[in-house]
Amino acid sequence: MKIKLSEDQIEISRQARRFFEKECPMNYVREMFEGQRGFKDEVWAKMVEMGWTAILLPEAYGGLEMGLVDLCVLFEEMGRSVIPGPLFSTVLLGSETVKALGNEAQKEKYLPSMAAGELRGTLALSEPDSGPDPDYVQMEARGDENGFLLNGTKLFVPDAHTADFLIVAARTTPGEDPAHGISLFVLDTGASGLSVSLLGTMDGTRKLCAVDFRDVVVTREDMLGDRDQGWKFLDKVLQRACVALCAENVGGAQKCMEMATQYAKERVQFDQPIGAFQAVKHRCAQMFLEVESSRSMLYWAAWAQDQGDPLEAALSASAAKAFCSETYKSVACAAVQVLAGTGFTWEHDLHFYLKRAKANEVALGDPAYHREEIVRMIEGEREPGPLWGTKQG
Amino acid sequence: MDFRFTEEQEAFRRGFLSWLEETLSEIRGTDTPRTFESMEEWEQAARDFQRRLFKAGYASRHYPKEYGGQGRTMEEELIVSETISATCPEFKRPLGVTFGLVAPTILTCGTEEQKREYLPNIIDGTHIWCQGFSEPNAGSDVVNVATRAERKGDYYSVNGQKVWTSFAHMADYCVLVVRTNPDVPKHKGLSYLLVDMKTPGVEVRPIVQITGDREFNEMFFEDVKVPVNMLVGEEGQGWVIAITTLMFERAMGDATIGRMQFKAVERMFEMARRIKRAGRPAIKDPRTRQQLGQAYIETMALRCHGYRHLSHMLEGGLPGPEGSIGKLLWSETGQRSNELAMQLQGPFSQLMKDSPWAVDEGRWQYAFLRSKGFTIEAGTSEIQRNIIGERVLGLPKDAARVKRA
Question: pTM of the entire structure?
Answer without folding.
Answer: 0.95
